[in-house]
């Protein structure tokens, strides 16, 4: 019994193999990009972001109050969280009323 010898390929064959792999990769990327642009995919991303925001929003009044107690001004809080100042004031009032 003789040991099986590895196949020897030429540089041209290797280049063809690599080119074929790159083409398959590019086709896969195109398919993923097409899916990423579909309404369904955008809706799924929006739903995920909305759920994440709802989780944050639930604890937001406590965080705003904690920041205020730490010396943050409502304007600073609004800027860092990309909220309006009036929203911050409203949430702080609601938080204070619940306490």
Structure description:
- There is one protein chain.
- It contains four helices and no strands.
- The chain has 99 residues and is mostly helical.
- It has one domain.
- Helix 2 crosses helix 4 and helix 3 packs across helix 4.
- The chain is elongated and about 80 Å long.
How would the blueprint of this fold be written?
Layout: H1 11-36, H2 39-69, H3 74-81, H4 85-98
Helix pairs in contact: 2-4, 3-4
User: In this structure, how is the largest beta sheet organized?
Assistant: none
Distance between the termini: 86 Å
Using DSSP, what is the number of strands?
Answer: 0
Strand content: under 5%
Give the low-confidence spans.
none
User: H/E element string?
Assistant: HHHH
- How many structural domains are formed by the residues? 1
Helix content range of the residues, please? over 70%
- What structural category characterises the helix and strand content? mainly alpha
The mean pLDDT is 89
Q: What is the compact description of this entry?
A:
By secondary structure, this protein is mainly α.
Task: Please name the defining characteristics of this protein.
4 helices, mainly alpha, about 100 residues, about 80% helix
């Amino acid at each position: 019994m003789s040991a099986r010898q590895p196949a020897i390929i030429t540089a041209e064959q290797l280049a063809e193999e690599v080119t074929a792999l790159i083409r398959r990769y590019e086709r896969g990327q195109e398919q993923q990009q097409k899916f990423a642009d579909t309404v369904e995919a955008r809706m799924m991303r929006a739903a995920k972001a909305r759920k994440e925001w709802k989780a944050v929003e639930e604890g937001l009044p406590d965080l705003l109050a904690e920041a205020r107690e730490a010396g943050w001004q409502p304007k600073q809080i609004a800027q860092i969280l990309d909220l309006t100042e009036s929203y911050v004031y409203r949430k702080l009032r609601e938080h204070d009323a619940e306490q």
